[in-house]
Design a protein that fits this description.
2 copies of one chain form a homodimer. With 454 residues, the first copy, chain A, is of the alpha+beta class. Chain A contains 12 helices and 18 strands.
């Protein structure tokens, strides 16, 4: 639509600057010291919705960080699109690996570098600017609701209660989420699934205090050694996960599905070069795309214990810790896997240490049917702006709340993501290409148009 | 000797206050930010030697922290005792586990709590106060030299050069060191050996940057998992160390020696209760005292990688690190073991990661003959003040420079330590009992007396 294109071209710089302002707010939900920044960011989102043309926009308090809700109801008889996104971001550390401040966004080589640039501020803000485009050009063909939360990166602990208590408010015909990636600008794709998550923290305690490793070493179990042995045992020699029952509920992909996946463009050498590794690693019997898409995984997200400073300290530490998370695929259940994992760790823990393993958060896997109205509208929208039909792919990440949305609101979810795997999500130097940002703003109005025409 | 006892009783409080002042200086050799504190501490040691009656005391510059040398030459025809000690201390972290500031010494229940209280400020300072006692009472029967260095806790990297270049200055008849422990005040003992050390740091790199564990997890080797597998493989199911050649040079204890060791008082239940562990761990086929005394060990002193902060971060980290140290027994050589360890780690490292393993520092094991004049003088001194003959035991710790002293200066070393294993050396809440401090000051002059009488 020429009118959208013209409006967007004209306001291009402002669309960017507004996003940069949002990226300057260090809205790290995991860290209690950013509590006030979280509120500040929520307020900024609320204002931006009103400025873009929402009839109303409000903060809803939770036990944690506030939820932003906004809406533009043009005509109750028209279909309603519920846009979900999150204004919180992952912690920025390790800070020393950033080339510029994580909360001081810079544009370099046509890319915005900042924590949250892609995940998810840059992506949900495309919807705000798409709303503005349609409102200002009098072309909004749907009702639109925004649910932008502040706890996605910590597992959405308070969103479920809000959804359950506000079913009427959130009533819609489809949920649209931009919080995933596409293969590339040349090969647009739509995620048809997100994996579930079980994230736990483990504490292993040996002696009741740090000891001199010369005086006690060799006679008392070292919690680092024991934790390492426990971690080492979680994958067998074929990199299968060894927790009994772990794979029981996994829906194995059919040969036909695997064949289709194998057709997605993938260059192993480029993949390895990009990551700087000589050899790939993973579960025997599966391809890289299968390992990240249709197979559950167990990853160590962090480990620490003993002396980690400069120089040497000959200590036999009292404690060692690890953060471990599993990605889950349909039909695994987060609660069940968390229990299997924690029970297994307790079982394999030898009696010369004590262990405490606890849930951080979890989320269920989710699959979008490609014959749904939402998926079809997204595919048509992408075709309209990219000139080619998107490939449906299974994404590796997790959006914990998806399964609950479907259950409580009875809605299908469409993942229309414009990020790239190379955007360094959750890593130093997170980025979002300007081209992707603008392409998203251009594409979203088409989604509303095609969804309204369904 | 009544005259010593009276002098010491009279100056008791000052002897304590002077030590407390020394403990207030945060002389952490491993941390570059304490460079100036190191010099300040060296200056304080120098002044204390002059004040105690040294003829001269001076700082010798090194590539690292200064060495303090002092002497009181009464008569060149008399025997000379070279006292070695160190004014540097281990890092104090984890700080949150200290009940009071590590460099704000407090007296509680008859114990001095501070970093360095026992290791080694409290112990070498007994010799300074013993010198003062003998000088002030005109009873010094020997010449006495002090060599107090500032890099013991980081492996004495610059002491060897100093010793080699100053053989004449350091000429003596015996080296006396108080930097070890005794079994208890009721069961005095003398260490007849210290273990050697090989301390390395390992860096394992997987992908070239931190990755999103959902997007890449399962397809790229996680450096924490790989490091854990490598660490786990270093001890077999009997807790023997698996590095090929590791035990080749170990001098096995004879049955007679093992029988003698088994006679030293040891209550396993008390030992476990003190450490708060249900079961002890260690190399199969050896007792606890053997494991810490006559067997080499491999301990993890630290591990870190990925996200270690509050909350959760779903990251697949680029790097993971560990600090690993081995304690060595006679006839193992530090250089050789370090090479075996590093070569082995490189060999077992799989090709989907890269590894960098480097030496921090090392030191050779050392044994004192119990029929030497020095040992006999120490045993008689302890008998004079404790009322019982000390038990010779093999200590688990390391004093890296001992083997070099013997080689370069041709001297035997006597370890007359007054610490306790429960003094929390290298740990939070390091302490030194006032009773042990005063008992040491009381005992040391007897060593000089008996050594002069030999």
């Amino acid at each position: 639509m020429q009118v959208w294109k013209e409006y967007q071209e004209q306001h291009k710089d402002r669309f960017l600057n507004e996003l940069l302002d949002l990226l300057r707010i260090p809205s790290v939900s995991a860290r209690s010291e950013h509590k006030e920044d979280m509120r500040k960011c929520a307020e900024a989102v609320r204002s931006s919705l009103l400025q873009a043309g929402a009839d109303k926009a409000e903060l809803h308090e939770t036990a944690g960080h506030p939820i932003v809700y906004g809406e533009r109801i043009t005509d109750p008889s028209k279909p309603t699109v519920l846009v979900y996104g999150h204004y919180d971001v992952q912690p920025a550390d390790p800070l020393n690996l950033w080339h510029s401040g994580p909360f001081e966004p810079v544009i370099k080589d046509g890319k915005i570098y900042a924590r949250g640039a892609c995940d998810d501020k840059g992506q949900f803000y495309m919807h705000v600017k798409a709303l503005e485009t349609m409102v200002q050009t009098n072309t909004l063909p749907t009702n639109i609701k925004f649910l932008i939360e502040g706890e996605e990166e910590v597992g959405s602990p308070n969103l479920a209660n809000f959804v359950k208590a506000n079913k009427e408010l959130l009533k819609a015909d489809v949920i649209l989420i931009s919080d995933t990636a596409m293969i590339s600008m040349d090969t647009p794709s739509i995620d048809i699934g997100v994996r579930g998550l079980s994230y736990i923290e483990v504490e292993v305690t040996g002696p009741n205090r740090d000891l001199h490793s010369g005086v006690y070493g060799g006679a008392v179990a070292n919690p680092i050694t024991i934790l390492a042995k426990m971690i080492a045992s979680l994958h067998d020699e074929n990199n299968h996960i060894t927790i009994p029952g772990f794979y029981d509920d996994v829906v194995e992909a059919t040969e036909a599905e695997r064949k289709l996946m194998a057709e997605a463009p993938f260059n192993e050498q480029e993949y390895k070069d990009d990551l700087g590794v000589k050899t790939l690693w993973g579960e025997k019997g599966f391809t890289t795309n299968e390992r990240t898409g249709i197979r559950p995984t167990l990853e160590l997200n962090g480990i620490w214990g003993g002396y980690t400073g400069e120089g040497a300290k000959t200590v036999l530490p009292s404690k060692a810790f690890a953060k471990i998370s599993c990605r889950l695929v349909p039909n695994q259940q987060s609660d069940k896997i968390t229990k299997l994992l924690i029970d297994h760790l307790n079982k394999i823990a030898p009696d010369y240490i004590t262990i405490k393993a606890e849930l951080h958060h979890g989320g269920e896997p989710y699959m979008t049917p490609i014959d749904s109205d939402g998926y079809k509208a997204a595919a048509r929208a992408i075709e309209a702006t990219f000139g080619k039909s998107p490939i449906p792919v299974r994404g590796g990440g997790s959006i914990p709340i998806c399964a609950l949305f479907e259950k409580e609101l009875g809605l299908k979810i469409v993942f229309m993501g414009f990020g790239l795997d190379s955007d360094n999500l959750h890593s130093p130097n997170e980025k979002y290409d300007l081209a992707n940002y603008y392409k998203g703003i251009e594409t979203i109005p088409y989604f509303h148009k095609f969804f309204a025409e369904k």
